[in-house]
Every structure is written in C-alpha cells, then in structure tokens.
Amino acid sequence: MPQGWKRSLTSDMPSTQRPSAWQRALELSAATPDSRNRYVDLLRAVSILCVIYGHWIAAAAFADGEGGLVTTHLLALTPASHPFTWIIQVMPVFFFVGGFSNGITWDSAQRKGTGYSPWLEARLRRLVIPVLIPLAAWMVMGAVAHGVGVTQPWIEQGSQKALIPVWFLAVYVLIAMLVPISHFLWKRFGWGSFFGMVALAGLVDVAFFQFGVRGGAWVNYIFVWSAVHQLGYAWSAGKLEGSGKPLLLAGCGAALLGVLISLGPYPISMVGVPGEEISNSLPPKITLLALGCLQIGLLLSIQEPMKRCLKGLRFWAATVLINGMIMTLFLWHMTAMILTVGVAHLLGDLGLTAEPNSATWWAQKPIWLIACTASLLIAVALFGRFERPAPLPKNAPTLASWRLILGALLVCFGLAAVAYGGIAADLPLGLRWPSLIPPFIGAALVRRWRMQPLTS
Q1: pLDDT score, position 359
Q2: How far apart are CA 27 and CA 10, in angstroms?
Q3: How confident is the model at residue 17 (pLDDT cuts 50, 70, 90)?
Q4: 268, 315, 312, 280: which is closest to 208 by C-alpha?
Q5: C-alpha–C-alpha distance, residues 50 and 429, integer Å
Q6: Are the C-beta atoms of residues 75 and 271 closer than 8 Å to each other?
Q7: Of 375, 350, 376, 374, whose CA–CA distance to 364 is shortest?
Q8: Angle at which helices 21-30 and 3-10 cross, to 10°
Q9: How far is CA 251 from the centre of its chain?
Q10: What is the pLDDT of residues 21-41, one digit of tens each?
Q11: Which residues contact 163 (CB under 8 A, 6 or more apart)?
C-alpha cells in the first residue's frame, strides 16, 4: 500500500483504537492491484443487495385483528409484480461470477501444481463456518419456542423462510466440487460445454412437462447452474469482452425467454409464487438459463465504463466493504426481517395493521426497510468475523480429498433439507435432527477450526 494512503487513513486515530470497517475498506481499496477485475466484485455486491431488498420488499406480514399474524407475499397478491422478478432474481449472476472466480483460482492452482485438495479447502473455508452460525441460532430459537408451546407449523414456517437462502450454498458447493470436470470441459470443448449443459437442462424440462418426470427435475440444479457457471469461464477466458458479444448473448437470452413464456408452460415470475403449481426456480428450469444470458449480457455490455468508475477510491471501497461481509448479509437478512416483524408484533402490531399492497402499506415500506437494515447491521457486527478465516500456516498438512468431499456432501445434504423443510419435527426438542446434524459433521471434516481473533 502506498505509505501516503496509510498515513492519511490512520493518522487521526489513536494507536489503540480499532479502525472502522470503512477505514479498513479504504486501506484495502488503496492497496488493490490494477490487474484485479473489480467489476466481478461489483456484480457480486449489487446482486446481494438486490436479493436482500427484493426479499424485504416482497414480504407482506400483517395482523389479523385477533392477536394473530398472517404472513404472505407480494407476488401472491398481485400478478402485476411478477415481471419485476426478472430484475430481482439474480442467482444467475452469482453463479456467473462464481464461475469467473473458480476458473481464475483453478487455473492458478494448476500452474502452481497445488492440487485439488488445497484448492477445494480454500473454496470451502469461507463458506462452511458462516452458515453454521445462523443454523445453530435457529436450533436454539426453535428449541426454546418448542419448549414454551409454539406449535410445530409456526417453527417450521419461520425457520424455513429464514434459512431458505442456504439452498444457494448447497448448490454452489456442489458446483465448486465439480470445477476440475467443468473446467476441463471448457478447455476441451469451449462454448460446446455451455451448449451441452443447456441441452441437458432442456431435456430435463421436456421430461418434466411432457412425461411427468417430476423427481428427476431436481438434477437441473446441476445442469442449469453449471451452464451459467460455464459462462463465467468464458468471461475469464476473454470470450465476452467488448459490447457486441455480450449484447448478442443478451438478445439470445431475451428471445428464448420470450418464446418460453409466451408459447410454453412456463410462468412469468422467475421466483416461486405461493400457490402456483409450476415454478421456474423450484426446481430450476431453462427459463433461468435464458434470464441469466439476458442479465449477464446486459451487465457485461457496460463493463468498461463501470471499470473506469471503480477506479475511484470511494466507489471501490464501498464495493470492498460489502464483499467483506457478503456471507453474513446473505445468510442473516431473512432472520433479521423475521425478528424485526416479531418485535413489532410484540409491541402491539406496530406497523402491521395496513393491508398488504395498499397505499398505506407502501408508504410504510421504507420505514420497514430501514428497520430491517438496522437489524441486519447488528447481525453483521455480531457474526461478521466468522467469514474471515485466519490464514493457514505455510506448512500445514493437506487435508485428504475424500475428507473434503465427504464433508462437503454432508453440508450440502443438511442445508438442502433445511432450506426445503425448516428445522421443526416431532423429535426431541422439536428439531429435525437428521437434517441439522450433517452440516456440523461435514464442517468438522472440511474445516480447520482456527479463526481470526475478534480484534483483527
């Protein structure tokens, strides 16, 4: 880091004072090499904000006037809101930037002769521990709620809504485990590896709609998101530079999406709508692939001017700040909202009396967003340290591949089960132990339990 920057950022602080998160972000920003593709980090940061505020805006809880609380969803109340999901459904962008990052790091590992195990461990280190913290917190809250007489359906519904974001980690970890295969396919077949995944995803959809093969449709979690992940390889390989190719990709995605929506059995909403039989996202359909091409193409078409903007210190520092807490933001944002609503309910249904989608409800929404943001920032202050693993000693022994793979699979299984059904069951303490225990066993296998000190 240039010494002038360091002095200017720290000279006004007493030597014993811990620098603020913003000051640390400024220091990291000033030290960022010019070779880094900062647009990757910006896409990740903007996407997480879309997820968080999209969920908060769409959530609709209100008091029923008899001391109870009703939870519903804006998408279920007004079909006119469904096209907006084309903006807030940004999971394709996450898998896309994941493909870029995984491709870069795997290439580097191969050049250095590092091997699969160290590479996979490095990928898992920032993913596993952070997700265990909200999981453990909900286990405690669920057991306490069960003990005081809260019924199982309420615990199941609340925990499932709060922990549903963990499905992404379950799938992302699986995709990361397959990087040696998917990256080989990209190196060997190039764009053919992308179109091959697209074809497989399309065949799964045909089996789903034409032949009623519903159970097999879950494999599209691999085919759809692997295809988007391949686009990340294409970007890292320089195949999507300029504006012409990205706009062609966006045009193809828009055309395919239009055909599928207008002529096919696919709904308009790109996220699940309560009460609708067919969902584009559960399990994923090729519509999400088309949406991903549309979004990614448009975003890459403006990458050059955005990269110029990211050379500004404060803009880049804001991006660094969000990326430094991104796991905590993602994993805790639904819990923060649920706890905020719960407190309002206990305070006499404060702000919960307006009918969802009414003028009053929309007028109150900014206040709710501010309250949920404050709650989430408290979670970041308490739990953000868990996504900053301490560096491993240089001579640390390599973990066996079987141990990493088995541990990762156990984590994925448990997270997927919790995202689908919550934590409640008719078992001791009212908890679904067969789903809750595997992630902790998996974490013990894939993780070395050495964390950054709290003061770091």
Answers
A1: 94
A2: 9
A3: low
A4: 280
A5: 36
A6: yes
A7: 350
A8: 170
A9: 26
A10: 888 888 888 888 888 899 999
A11: 134, 135, 138, 334, 335, 418, 419, 422, 423
In the prediction, which pLDDT does 28 show? 86
Q: How far apart are CA 279 and CA 269, in angstroms?
A: 8
Q: Write down the pTM of the prediction.
A: 0.90
Residue 160 CA: distances (Å) to CA of 69, 157, 311, 417 = 17, 5, 41, 10
What are the structure tokens assigned to 66, written together?
């008899």
Alpha-carbon distance values, 107 to 44, 99, 165, 191, 394 (Å): 21, 12, 29, 18, 21
Residues with Cβ within 8 Å of 148's Cβ and at least 6 positions away in sequence, in order, are none
Burial class (CB in 10 A: 0-12, 13-18, 19+), 113: exposed
**How many Å separate Cα 15 from the centre of its chain?**
37
Side-chain-facing half-sphere of 127: CA atoms under 13 Å: 27
**When comparing pLDDT for 290 and 122, which is higher?**
290
Strand pairing partners for 72? Answer: 60
Q: Which of 326, 329, 323, 327 is nearest to 373 (CA)?
A: 329
Instruction: Give how far the C-alpha of residue 328 lies from the chain's centroid of Cα atoms, to the nearest Å.
Output: 10
For residues 290 and 92, what is the distance between their CA atoms, to the nearest angstrom? 10
Convert 204-256 into a string of H (helix), E (strand) and C (coil): HHHHHHHHCCCHHHHHHHHHHHHHHHHHHHHHHCCCCCCCHHHHHHHHHHHHH
Span 56-62, mean pLDDT? Answer: 91
Place of tokens 């950054």: 452
Residues 6 or more apart from 425 whose CB is under 8 A from it? 152, 431, 432, 433
Mean local confidence (pLDDT), 74-90: 91
> Rounded to whole angstroms, what are the CA distances from 89 to 80, 94, 101, 207, 301?
16, 10, 21, 25, 19
Return the percentage of the chain with pLDDT > 90, whole number: 69
Cβ-proximal residues to 178 (8 Å cutoff; 6+ apart), any chain? 222, 226
Task: Report whether 313 contacts 26 (CB < 8 A).
Answer: yes
Residues with Cβ within 8 Å of 174's Cβ and at least 6 positions away in sequence, in order, are 221, 222, 408, 412
Structure-token pair, residue 292? 């991903």
C-alpha to C-alpha distance for 370 and 365, rounded to whole angstroms:
9
For residue 60, the surrounding DSSP H or E stretch is: strand 59-63
Q: For the chain, give the mean pLDDT.
A: 89
Query: Across residues 152-179, what is the average pLDDT?
Result: 92
Q: How far is CA 26 from CA 20, 316, 318, 440, 454, in A?
A: 10, 8, 8, 35, 20
Q: Given this model, what pLDDT does residue 107 score?
A: 93
Structure tokens at 105: 């790091």
